[in-house]
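Note to self: keep these together.
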Amino acid sequence: MTDTARITELQAPAGDDAVRPFAVSALDVRGRAVQMGAALDAILARHDYPPEVARLLAEAVVLTALLGTSLKFDGRFTLQAEADGPVDLLVVDYHTTGAMRAYARYDADRVAGAVKSGKTGVSSLLGSGFLAMTVDQGSHTNRYQGVVPLQGESLEEAAHTYFRQSEQIPTRVRLAVAEMQRRHQGGVITSWRAGGVLVQFLPRSPERAQQQDPPGGEVPDGVESVAVAEDEAWTEARALTDTVEDIELTDPTIPVERLLFRLFHERGVRVFEPAVLHDQCSCSRARVDGVLSSFTAEEITDSVEDGIISVRCEFCGRGYEFDPDGFAAKDQIADS
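Structure:
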């Protein structure tokens, strides 16, 4: 298909693990939609996460995919949540090659306690903390990070807070996760699916663009923008996005193109070439060697166990073993 096409009911679907950008010129909105299947399932399957933790991390993966695929240059987008709750760390990396990896750190006993008490929202599982989104072009001079407090009962709400406070772009996000089951050879196979749609109001007309900043440049807490909130186009786009149901985002028989057609066909939605996602960790023996080479002699000694240095990647679980004598030799060369 071409770079851009007016969407129809017969639009060829992008399929799973592919982010579909779209635009609705009549409403001055642009956005992206995605359904994730095999790539997400592979990321989650590496760790024996409790279902509640898996769901939370899956939402973070989808949100990262929707945001990371907006990058127009070679680089990396990282979403990170650090908090004091049963799940104290969520990290998701997206590289513009489409490679994604993700990891959640949690206290199993505290998670079980939260589940038993029925408290599985973001405020209960993550607790108090912050949500950071980092764009990295590979050099410190081209690195941007936005940080906001974790707020709300879902990552959707946390994302809305981020865009309101950090980016000041009127944004609506819908995320959904589903645990799928199918029969296979007398047993049941469980897999994860997830989906999401992100819609942003990006007016091109000078009149609307000027309305985005209220007098004094300050936006009251809980308000996206006084002028923009009253804009009929954004009100309509936001209302349509809020009609999206979870099943529409996770059902493999409902491709995102069909969903976009349902939402915006009366206004003329156009779609662009999808960005393909895949499960791929960026760790390697050379990278780990580089990190260990920066250690002091004392740190190398402290890292030795049973005569070797063992390192395991938290993202993919791959293990690496090193002879500590090699790093001692590098120390001696550096000191000579």
